[in-house]
Amino acid sequence: MEKSLVLIKPDAVRRNLIGAIIAMYENHGLVVQRLEKLTPHPDQAKAHYAEHEEKPFYPGLIDSILSGDIVAMVVEGERAIETVRRINGATDPRKAEPGTIRALYGEELPNNSVHASDSVESAERESAIWFQ
Fold first, then answer.
1. Mind listing the pLDDT tens digit for each residue in 49-88?
2. Whole-number Å distance between alpha carbons of 99 and 27
3. Known active-site residue 28
4. Where are the domains of the chain?
5. Which of 126, 127, 115 is nearest to 7 (CA)?
6. Which of 21, 66, 23, 16 is nearest to 42 (CA)?
7. What is the DSSP letter of 35?
8. CATH homologous superfamily of domain 2-130?
9. What is the Cα–Cα distance from 100 to 62, expressed in whole angstroms?
10. How far apart are CA 120 and CA 47, in angstroms?
11. Which residues contact 132 (CB under 8 A, 6 or more apart)?
């Protein structure tokens, strides 16, 4: 079984969407293995988005993730990374397929409600940041 890290971002937590988002993953056969609601530390945010540090949108990512509590979780299932990314939809909520989390709940970048790992390696690296 494959694992993926999912972050329910502050914009979705503020709007009480935690249960609705988790249900979407569970309804697709994924199992929540770990879950924690937390206030991100700036060092965690910087480590999480390190690959984007030189990009112009980096400060907005950091500000967004630090703007409130998040829910960090590890979900598991067959082809979990691919499944989670399909459920999430395109990064930009305006371009996300109807019925995906970002189409339903995303506001505008960077407040697109969720983050998910893009590979097994990323899932392992990111999980270590949020679950120490």
1. 999 999 999 999 999 999 999 999 999 999 999 999 999 9
2. 13
3. no
4. 2-130
5. 115
6. 66
7. E
8. Nucleoside diphosphate kinase-like domain (3.30.70.141)
9. 24
10. 17
11. none
